[in-house]
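note to self — DONT lose this again. spent like an hour looking for the file last time. sequence + predicted structure for the chain T wanted, 224 res
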Amino acid sequence: MYRLIRPLLFKLDAETAHRLAIRSSKLIQKLPGVAVSTTSGSLEQTLWGIRFSNPIGIAAGLDKNAECLPFWERFCKFMGMETLIKGDDVIYSIGGRTGILVREAPKNTESSGGGEIFRGRFDQDRAGLHHFCFRARSREDVEAIHSFIEAEPDVTVVHGPEEGGHFAPGYYSILFEDPDGIRVEINHVPGKGHFGSDGQLGSGAGPRDTYYSASDFDGRDPGD
């Protein structure tokens, strides 16, 4: 069948062809009497001493058709949230006085400011969101979430559980990138943090004039 539709697909732009292939596959799987199998002896591969039931595929982690949504639904459920809205291009989860909505970036549309909406892998240095953070109740919670994240195939762990006393007293965190590259932090700060007697504000020192200093990171890139 692929030989028949290949000429058509190659005449379409990448986004349209990608969208058509995904939606067609989902539709075919719903047809009565159609059994779709992803395993076959002829497809098995053995690499680095590990047996894979299918050939390995490598693809760029761009925001194609909101494919990061399944990750966010799994992640939110792990965090104890429930799915309130679930569509082909949107997922909205709530719980713990928090709501997280993730959706596919609209195609061929303009932002409210009149500029073209950016579609592509997230860039932390682009105007807008830098990263966002969940506050954990304990160091053990940070480590549990790290274990969950490590098992996710399309997520990049920027750093595992580590101390960060240069940010706040007792600061302990992990940092990862979702399938589209959006950076998410999970941290635990004991006690009152900066509002405590050892903190920047509780001690009476007042606000700093920089977000960080080079010595805080021992030569590492502060984005890492």
